[in-house]
Structures are given as C-alpha cells and as structure tokens.
Amino acid sequence: MHHHFTEMSNTVSVFLALLCYLLLQSLSCSGSKILVVPVDGSHWINMKIILEELHSRGHEITVLRSAKSWYIPSNSSIYTSINVPMFEDEANRDFYIKMLQGVMDRRSYPTFIRTFYQQHLLTSVIGDCHKMLARSAAKILDDAVLMKKLKDTKFDLMLTDPAFSLGIILGGYLKLPMVFNVRWINNGEGHQTVAPSPVSYVPVSGSELHDQMNFLERTKNMLHYLYSVYEQYFIINPAYSDLFQKHFSPGTDLVSLGLSADIWLFREDFVFEFPRPTMPNVVYVGGFQCKKAHPLPDDLEAFMQSSGQHGVVVMSMGTLVSALPPEITEAIAAAFAQLPQKVIWRFVGDKPSSLGNNTLLVKWLPQNDLLGHPKTRVFIAHGGTNGLYEAIYHGVPVLGLPLLFDQFDNLLRMKVRGAVRVVEARSLTKDNFLEAVKDVLENPFYRKNIQRLSQLHRDQPMPPMDTAIFWIEYVIRNKGAAHLQSAGFSLPWYSYFCLDVAVVVLALIGTSIWVSVLVCRLLCCRNGKKMKAE
Amino acid sequence: MHHHFTEMSNTVSVFLALLCYLLLQSLSCSGSKILVVPVDGSHWINMKIILEELHSRGHEITVLRSAKSWYIPSNSSIYTSINVPMFEDEANRDFYIKMLQGVMDRRSYPTFIRTFYQQHLLTSVIGDCHKMLARSAAKILDDAVLMKKLKDTKFDLMLTDPAFSLGIILGGYLKLPMVFNVRWINNGEGHQTVAPSPVSYVPVSGSELHDQMNFLERTKNMLHYLYSVYEQYFIINPAYSDLFQKHFSPGTDLVSLGLSADIWLFREDFVFEFPRPTMPNVVYVGGFQCKKAHPLPDDLEAFMQSSGQHGVVVMSMGTLVSALPPEITEAIAAAFAQLPQKVIWRFVGDKPSSLGNNTLLVKWLPQNDLLGHPKTRVFIAHGGTNGLYEAIYHGVPVLGLPLLFDQFDNLLRMKVRGAVRVVEARSLTKDNFLEAVKDVLENPFYRKNIQRLSQLHRDQPMPPMDTAIFWIEYVIRNKGAAHLQSAGFSLPWYSYFCLDVAVVVLALIGTSIWVSVLVCRLLCCRNGKKMKAE
Question: In this predicted complex, what is the ipTM?
C-alpha cells in the first residue's frame, strides 16, 4: 500500500485516490463529534487544513474561539463555533511587535549570556501569558451552562494545539480522548516531557544549538535544560494552581494532563528536526499542509512571467508580525531595487521610499502556489515551520530573517543542512542583505541541498496528512490509545531517574566495603597482637 | 492512502491491491542487489518471507549460509546461496536441548537470585558462542577469493538478522548500507544500544519484569542492566578483539558497527511490547509474517471438523527444541487424553504411552492456517515471537510453556494483558497442566483480551510487511539513511550521560559556594576583630 507519494503517474494516482476515497469513506468513523481548541495566528492555518479533511470525511466539528479572534471565523461551512473567553480577549497583536523589539535589543549580547539572560527577562512575559490563559480557562470551567452543553454533546475527541493550555485543561476536565496537533509546548519541545531528551545530543528549544555539541555547548544546553525545568515547575505550573485546586483531583497539573494525551501529532520531519528519541504515541506529520501548487491568479502569473530568465524572489514574514521597523524595511527595499530579479513582498504598513520598480507589495500572497512556481528562485522568510516545510516540499532555497519564538532554532536546523542562509534583523544593512540574497540566488549549494531534503521528505510510506487523519480516527475508533502510553509518566521524578535505586545500591556497596575493611582490620589487629605476643 | 487493512471489502481490496502492485512495480528499485546474512532456525522463517516479497519485486538476492544449515536450503528459486563457515558448523541442535535442561534446573531458585545467577552461569556459554561466531567471521574475512567476489558484486544493501554477528561485521567491512531484521541482539534488546532505555520503566531482557515496577523490581532491573553492560563490554566485545584489530580501523567494535545500521526493522508491536522510547531509524514491523489462513489439507480439515462443538487444541514448541523431557511429554499426553477437545501436537520423538485417541501427533503443522481455523480454541506454545504474533493476529488465546531465551519475557508481556496463561515446564504435572488448559479453554477472559489485542494490532496505517519493504527499498533508493541516525552514537559514554558537564557544573557551584563562605568568614573575622578592637 506504500508508495512514493509524488512520483506516481497522474492517471494511476487519480484512480487510486478515488478508490482510497471510497475505501476510507466505508471505514471512517463518520458522524464522530470532535471538539477543537485551536491556537490563533499561523497555528490556525494548519489546524484548519486538518479540519477541512476531517469535515470531508463526515465528522462533526465544534471549534472554540475568542469573540475577538484574529484569524478564526465564527461562521464556517466546516464547523460550528462557540465563542469563549480566550487569550486574544486580553492580548492583541501589538504585543508581538513589542516582544520583537525586546528580542532584537537583547540579541546583541554574546551568545551564551544573551540567550540565558533573555529567557530570564522573558520570564515575566511567560508567567503573565500563562496567568492570562489560566484566567480564561477558569472563566470557561465556571460557566455552568457552557460546561453542561459541552458535556451533553458527548464529544468523541478533543483535538487541540497545546501551545496554549485551554485545550489540555478542557480535554482533561471533560475526560475526552485527546490528540495534540503540536510543534512546541509550554517551555519548548513537547518532547522534553513526552520522551527522554538526553541533553548531550538533544538541543533544548531556544538554545540555538545543534545536535553535535562540544563540551561548552553541552554545558550551555544543560543550563538551558535546568532553566526550562525551573520555568515549568516554578513559573508556569503555579499560574494554574488555583484552577487545578478548584476543578481537578490533587496532584494534577499541566504536565500530567498533557502527558495523558493519546496521540501527539508532531509537525516535524527528520529531514528538518535532528534525530532524537521519540515515543510510540508520537507521530511525525511535518509538512502535512503542503500540496502541489495551483495555478496563480492571472495578474500574479503575468508578473512571474515578466521576470524572464532571472526569476522571482518571494518574501513573507508570517502572520503575526506584520510590520518590521522602518529602517529595516527601507534597507530591504533598497537591496531589492538592485536585483535583476522581480520581487513579491507580503507587506503591511507604509510603502518604503526606496522601493524599486521590480518589487510588488501585496497584503496577502498564495504562498504554497508561489513556492511551487517554476520562476521562484529564493524564499525570504522569518523561519516559521509552515513556510519552511513549504520551502522543503517545493525545494526552494531560503534566506532566513528570524524574529521570535522557535524561528532561530528552525532556521539553524536548515542552516546545518546547507539549505538556508540566515541574516540577523538587528545588524541588517542594505549591503549585507543584498550580498546574502545574491549568495542564495547564485550559489547552487543551497538549491542542491534543499532539493535533497525535498526528495527525502517526499519519500514517505504515506503522505503526512493521511498519517494525521489515520491516527485521529484511530483514537476515535479505539476510544483512546492507552496501550501506547509510557509507564514512566506515573513515576515520581526521583524514581523515573532511578535516584532512589542508585542511593540504595550505592549504600549497599558502601556498607559492604566498610564491613570488609572492618573485618580485615580486626583480623590484621589480631594477627598483629598475636605476632607481638609471640 | 491509509486504511484498516483487514476490514476492507473484498472487491475494493483486490482492485486496490492490483493498482498498488502496478504502482509499486513502477517505483521499486528493482534490479538492486541485496546481500542477506540470516540466522538459522525460527529466525529464518520470517526472514524468508521478506526475501520472497523482495524477490517478487525484482531484487537479486544472495544468501550466505552454512553448508550444514538446519533450515536454509542451498537451492532456491528466490535467491542464490553461498556456503560460508558459520555457527552451525560448530554447534548443533543438541546444544539447545542441553541448554534447556540447564535453564530448567536453575529456575527452581527464588526469582531474584535465580535469574541473576543464571546469567552468570550462562556467561561462559555466551562467551563461547561469540568466540565461535568470531572464528567463522574471521575465516570469511580471510578468504581473499570470497571477499573479492563479494566486493566485485557491488551489493546495494546488507539485510541481516543481528542476533548473530556475522552480518553486522560483513556489512561494516564491505561498507554497505545496512538494514536489520531484528528481535533481540547481543545481550538483549537492540534498544539498549539504539535508543535510551530508562531502567525505571524499560525492563531489561531476561529480567522477566514488566513496565510497572516497584522499588525492588527497579533495583533488580538496574542490576540486570549493569550486568548486561558488563557482559557486552567484558565478555562479548573481547571475543572479537583480534578480528577487529586485524580488519577494522581502531575504535571499531561490535556495538559501533551495529549502531551504523541505517534502519532497524523491529519485529515488535506495542500491543505486545511495553511502550518505550524509540529512535527515528527504528521501524516496528511486528507480525509482518501473519496472513489470512489458507484452507487446510483434506485430512487435517476432516480432523478439525471431527472435533464438533468442542473445537481443537493446537500445540507446537517451535523449531529448535524438538524434544521435551519424557516425563513432561507423558504428563501432557495424559492431560490431553482427558479433554473433550481434539488435539494436534507437533511432536518429534518417541510416542508417549499415555497418548489419548483424541490427540494427533504430527512432525510439522501449518501453524498460521491452523490458528486461523474457526475450530481452534487454544494454542499451546513455547512463546517464541513468531507464534505469539500469529496468535495475536488470529485472536487465539495461548497457554505458554516457556523454555529458553526471550520466551519467558514474551509470555510475560501477554500475561500482563490477560491474553495468556503460563505454566512452568519444571513443575509441570498432569493435573496442573490439565487445570491450566481447561482454564484457558473455558474462561472467556483470555479470548476477550487477545481479541482486543488482535483488533488493535490489525488497526495500522499500513500492513507491517509493506512497511518493512518500504524501508528496505528506502535505504536502497537513498543509499542509506544517515539523516535518521542519532548524533549521540558518536559521543564517548561519559559525554553521552553528561557526566563531564555535571562534574564541571558541580565543581563551579562548589567553588562559588566555597568562595562565598570564605568571603563571609573574612568579613565576619574582620568585623569580629573590629568589634574586639572597639
């Protein structure tokens, strides 16, 4: 049943798709009721694609959203929505622009101190975020009418993105089988909690380290790890203590609820992520949102064709940070003006004065279709995973301009593989940016490497979207997946790390050595006395 | 593309199979040259099934075998064979019968001491086995004509069962991409080397522990773990030291060569194995050899039907140990004689005097077809994985009579899930055996549980055989899978466990505490002196 999902001949694939469709329809658990708690922004983009697929397979979907949601519409043909108190009610997108300035300022310190210091400084931000999240979760659990409605619906599944905590809390409270659509969670990689992550070769998120570390880098990673544990247990968990005390049985916290998830759909693929331990209930679905390019709108297609042999540079900085500081956009615009290529730039804000004739500013762009267009030469991106997987899928080299969150780590992963070049926003000038763009355009190294990644990424037993849907329906069919959950989760930390055993074994060894020494001395003494006596 | 591979309607499945076949043919890396180093006995049974599939997909297969092989024929329509010096030249099957007597004797000691002691006693056996294996590997590497022939063939892949070391050594020497078809390796689970195996919830093979351990059991597991490390580095590795010194670059040993395998096809499924950490290059294909039952030969079918409503008990003790001690076979035969069921017993040796009319002795039986027969009520087995996966696949409850190797551990896994009952050969009597058979026959608990396992085992994104073939061809297509290999493998053990980092971090903390105390004291002293002076 396995196949190279891209190389198949078109006729066969259409035929096969039709048959599989019929087959799947007959096997699906259609009519299942799925409760979805998404995260707004770019996370919604890929959740929506899964929901479309689930809807087409006959599932009934209910989405919880904020009345002030940025991207999640209240009316949809694929789901019913319920407005609930959420993060977006208290935070707005300016929040991220302020955070960006903070990060850029801090990135001028030497690496080691800078990153660690940055996390400390951000601490209050993280604590505040979790307090906001806890407040909105509390409001929902206290809303007796809403909770009765949710209970009475008898959902078959909670599908949530655990980057924000509401879905975890609500799924745990309603005791629903739970599937995570996850990239990172709480203090970083969900893996830190779900699978062992040896600090010697698994870089902690935010550390900007790769998997081959020297002694100093391993020390840095260890400090990051210790800090992340501190953050989880002393900053994040306390933000929820009132909530858990009121609504859950003693001993429950955000970590234990998260570990009760049946399946973790990780938006990762090992052409991108460093090889690392994983668990049987972790399924890798990185790049599930990628698909073949559709034809562009006529005007955009005409623009692409007008680039001639030089091709096109596509730039997009994602959904959250719409405005870079003006001195940076001016430098970028001036650099673009000197290129023989055409440029399409997803841009919101005041038009830069240095903008060249070759550059088209657009408020939104069909990113996947542009990246799959034969004229596209380079993708300039902030390094969010959605965009990077699309670049991998279509084999387009990337110039990375990381701004926030996991973007530094993401770009590092592709840089190690020679598939991207990275420029720092903080030190960006017209000249160094122009040099970097030209390098990625002209040096075949980047294209060769990303096309190798593309080939490996497409060489999977089945398309990642089908994998995702299979495991979601698996959990519905089997009412959970308890047999895939590690027994290690139920151990206290000192037992998990065998510290109790180690102490006792060492004590036994110590005692037996001590006793042997004592016996030897006694014997020696006696012999000594005897010898003296003789 | 995913589907429930058993529930599909027949028409669709035939159609789909045909299409997939066409598709796969067009994508396969047919014409690839595969070098296979199998392990004789039951391991060969499942390797052969993979080879048949690979042959049908157009690959050229060369099998290395002993001229005295027990099961591997020299002439085959699916492969070319080459006779080489192997384990079977020096050992014979009586070896296992002697080992069995030893194990049975030792199993009368209390659990903890017994198992540990047993391993110590077996030490010389394990060391001797590896010395035999090293001798035959050395003969092969020293055979210039054979080695030239193997090199000149330019194989695309080494496919081997690493339970014996020859395939690992030869694959490493010829620098071939390598795929393991593996259940256990060297001192136990291959996982002890390929993925982290926290001692707190991953039982070491041979420990007869499960994944939920109390303090004493975790201590026992730790001792087993420490002993297995000792065994690997002080008993097994030294057996090969001359060989590696002569033919490999310094620092190479059996462990490092094993870790260089591209893909590990593990004959495991998590309905059977306890959930545990795994790695991206580990693929679970447990039960790949299972298939729908074919109709039985006429005489056997007539025998099955003659059982009427009572049904049939099927008994087989595997390929290696053909003869149980006569007092045990007499007790079993006498117990069978009292059953209303019919019994089919795979039996080699002298016919027991107590044999009843309801019991049919056969030298060989079509095990998969019998287990899939509707009249089959219970499977009495030694607990090898081939038989257990067939029992899971067909949902037949098992009465286990473990004899050697991993059989005790295997049966424990299914006992924990309520799908088997276990009797000890050493304490077996007619009465307790009869009681146990009746229990498994009459108590619906066992059947219900194994049918739940069967349902979960069959609910996979694709059939495990297709998964196995996909990854074998993946390694051929991509000339290895280096990007799935952990960076942790290249670290020395003290770095892997971060001991170097821990020492330095603790030293730094210690020093800073010491300095602070010193400064405090100096200040106190001064203040004290000042106060005195005043």
Answer: 0.86
